[in-house]
Amino acid sequence: KNDDGVELAKAPTRLKPPPLYKVMLLNDDFTPMDFVVIVLQQFFSKDREQATRIMLKVHTEGKGVCGVYPKDIAATKVDQVIEFARQHQHPLQCVMEEN
Ligand code: TYC
């Protein structure tokens, strides 16, 4: 209240930015390298060079980040990649992790 007893407007509540999630590809021994490069281009908007770099990182280190997104978009990417790999009978796995 101010000096006249009038209720003052409350400061607006600060909203936290939504948490972001890393979408990661996991290495396996069977999925062709070219297929992984196509996935990175098609679902993560990478050019051929970026896609190749990420694919090789996953191949040598076991996993790698494809992109960082809000939760619902990350979950959709994971589903799309797993479904695309399944359609082509590759065991490629894709997961999300909170950043
Ligand atoms: N290791 C696979 C091969 O040698 C290639 C590969 C890379 C598979 C990345 C999955 O997420 C992956 N053909």
Distance between the termini: 42 Å
Biggest sheet descriptor: 3 strands, antiparallel
Strand order of the largest sheet: 2-1-3
The proportion of strand residues reads 15-25%
Order of helices and strands: EHHEHE
- How big is the Rg? 21 Å
Q: Assign an overall shape.
A: elongated
Bound molecules: L-tyrosinamide
Tell me roughly what share of residues is in helical segments: 40-55%
Question: Could you say which structural class the secondary elements and strand pairing correspond to?
Answer: alpha+beta
In total, the number of strands is: 3
- Low-pLDDT runs of 5+ residues are none
Helix tally?
Answer: 3
What value does the average pLDDT take? 92
Which helices and strands, and how do they pair?
Elements: E1 20-26, H1 33-44, H2 48-61, E2 63-70, H3 71-87, E3 93-98
Antiparallel strand pairs: 1-2, 1-3
The structure holds L-tyrosinamide.
Overview of the structural elements:
It is a single chain. The chain has 99 residues and is α+β, with helices and mostly antiparallel strands. The chain is built from three helices and three strands. A three-stranded antiparallel β-sheet has the order 2-1-3. The longest helix is centred in the C-terminal third of the chain and has 17 residues, at 71-87. The relative contact order is 0.26. The mean pLDDT is 92. L-tyrosinamide binds at residues 25-29, 31-33, 36, 55, 58-59, 92. Residues 16-94 form the Adaptor protein ClpS core domain. GO terms for molecular function: peptidase activity. Involved in the modulation of the specificity of the ClpAP-mediated ATP-dependent protein degradation. This is ATP-dependent Clp protease adapter protein ClpS. Keywords: Hydrolase, Protease.
